[in-house]
């Protein structure tokens, strides 16, 4: 599979952080768009709905003066203070009495916070509501200031409803005179006109600056910008990182080959004695080892500055989070593999030290664990898998050859009868050992080639016997080699085709589908931006569904089992939505069979202005924005519903706004005619459903005529 690039599109994390931190502290707040008349509410959290008794559908698009909360105990001076704060750019706290939907009153502290973009224009208002009786209500923003520190990373923001961006193109303000500023609207009949920018950017208190900025590196002002990254941060998919990974891969392969060879064949050789006498730079191989150690240490430093993709498929670029992620992952293995043990204990000339160096240098082989995971991305190709298996077989044979020589070399001085394989090798090639002359006996080349020949012949179960084990240690090792060889021969070479088909059938399907997509793009000459969107969506959808076509899977089961599966897949929607709670089990099964799940990437337009509204949309994951004339009028999140009230109109209407995904979204959709068909089959459920269906945002163009007789006339229209 290709490397996950993550969600790196330009995005603004300010609102995501605000929503996450406020909801984490059980705050009650709403967000209003400062660029439209009445400063319409575009988002309110569940805490505000619980506090006031109004649903999100009741609150959306209302003026942020909250005149729907006004009542007989609401002080007009407090109303004027709220309106004055919304007309300008000043931060203000106002004590005011509001009334819930049921008529009960409550005293609260309303904190109005203007949010500006990088050009100094007020883009929106955040209104936080705290009960006066709460002890910590006066310190709400101080608590926010404390908890937001160190929270600018993109990670985990989508755990709550996340608002990514609002287009900069929509920064249009009405040309209203300052004289038209009224103290406050007494009712919803009056409107608030967004004044000129210059009137909104004066007299900003130090408290506002402190709360909204919290330092440039902690909480950026609201602006449309690319993710802020440190200059030394390296993208995990950058060309430099790709080249560096290949370089480290080559060094690890070098380490896997030469470290066991050096530890077994060279450390007790005459070259080791020369190195002790003339210094560390005598042997070119030791110089190369030193350079490899340095490269591994540099790799550790680079990993501390390399981004990664988290579980939400977001690119994390915050240095502290990168460091924590690396410490929890591969840091320990990389650190042990990078320690230059021969340098740390250089100068000790004892045999025990030499043996210790050989054992410690084998710790570098731990890096092979990490390389194995990197090579997994190339294991989807059959030829690469076969070559990789061959290389693994040869590498294991090389390691076993080094161990085979080490056993013979350690036993040789202590054997009473010179029957070891090294002594037999010296006799057979005419280079006998003279124990008074350390330089006598076979050369290193003769010993290594013979050891490798023995291990290969033993692993492949072909052994000719011309190199044979004689001592007990050699025989025990030979038994182990034959066991390993039989296992490798049976599991790898005997089943190569079966392994490839079993492990990489999904990958083959992925490449087949990807090839079809590319051929489609090439045949229709789709331009580059749209082509990239198609390819990225296909890759993400494949990772999300693992290439499973749910419709094809369901077709293989009987209808009753299909209904049970669909009921399970849509259980969270049918159980969580109030409109479906009055349905019988049979009705729920019928509804579940008709729901379709749609997966949308960021930036995808789900509904265009003017489209016919043929379905109801239930948002189960992610967040979307609704735009009219490129101005954001609403932000919807999990469990929100949009579309039209199907029972009020005889025919489907047209959308009055665009609906665009802000993050990866999952939507449950049901077509208008299909839900009307279910309501026809279950008339006892129809009245309950239509009376409890609450649209968070009604997309229908209100120029159409409403059928005031409701469900009955629609039913007659359909039958007639």
From TrEMBL:
Residues passing through the membrane, by range: 246-267, 383-407, 476-500
CDD domains recorded: CAP_ED (cd00038), PAS (cd00130)
Keyword Transmembrane: yes
Subcellular location per the Swiss-Prot or TrEMBL entry: Cell membrane
Reactions it catalyzes: K(+)(in) = K(+)(out)
Entry-linked Pfam families: cNMP_binding, Ion_trans, PAS_9
Gene Ontology annotations of biological process type: regulation of membrane potential
One GO cellular component, as annotated: plasma membrane
UniProt key word Repeat: no
Top-rank taxon: Eukaryota
Alphabetized UniProt keyword annotations: Cell membrane, Ion channel, Ion transport, Membrane, Potassium, Potassium channel, Potassium transport, Transmembrane, Transmembrane helix, Transport, Voltage-gated channel
SMART domains: cNMP
Domain PAS: 41-72
Record membrane topology: Multi-pass membrane protein
Cyclic nucleotide-binding domain boundaries: 579-679
GO MF terms held by the record: inward rectifier potassium channel activity
Protein name: Potassium voltage-gated channel subfamily H member 7
Species classification: Eukaryota, Metazoa, Chordata, Craniata, Vertebrata
